[in-house]
Write the C-alpha cells for this entry.
Amino acid sequence: DTGVSQDPRHKITKRGQNVTFRCDPISEHNRLYWYRQTLGQGPEFLTYFQNEAQLEKSRLLSDRFSAERPKGSFSTLEIQRTEQGDSAMYLCASRPPPGTGGTDTQYFGPGTRLTVL
Amino acid sequence: AQSVTQLGSHVSVSEGALVLLRCNYSSSVPPYLFWYVQYPNQGLQLLLKYTTGATLVKGINGFEAEFKKSETSFHLTKPSAHMSDAAEYFCAVSKTSGSRLTFGEGTQLTVNP
C-alpha cells in the first residue's frame, strides 16, 4: 500500500506567477485534505474534499487559491498570482472511508515546498 | 473554536533520559487528540491518538500519552530517549472523526549524546 504522494516536492517561482500542486491520496481513501505549514509553525487547515465534493474551506484560502478533486481521486491546488507570503510547505493528507480501520486518522504526504522569490 | 498549546518550542534531553512534551487543548466537545512527528523535509507521521476509551494510549517507537480531561492535557512521554527521536513533534485536536485538524506550534526535540 503506497502512501500519499505529492508532486512536485519543491517549487521555486517568481512573484506573480501561477503554480499548481498535485496530491495522490492512498487508494480508496475518500477524504482528502490540504494544509499549509510556514516555517516554525504547525500546519494550518486549508480545505478538504469528500470524494469530489469540496466540503469545507478555511478563511486562509483566499480568492487566489483554488482546489479541485474532479474524479474523487487525485487533487490539485492552484495558487494564482503568487506572493512572497505564499512561501510555505503545502501538505496533503487522506483518510479512509467509514467502516474501514483508521477512519479517524489522516495520513500525510511528504509535502510540496513552495518558495516565491 | 478549538486550539492547542504546546509548552516549550524547544526541548533538549540527554540520550536515555525521560522525554516529556506538553500539550494542552481547548475544545467545546469531547476531542479527538493526536501526536504527530515530523522529520526534516518530510511530512507528518502519526505517533498515537486518543479517540475514546482508555485514557493512556501507546504509540509507535515507545511513546505514550495520557488524556486528562480535568487538566485538558495530552502530554507525550517516552521513558528513555534515543538519538533517532530528534525531530519536531506536533499535538493536534479535531472535533469529530475525520474533521479538520488543529495543530499546536510544535516542539523541537533535541537528543544529546
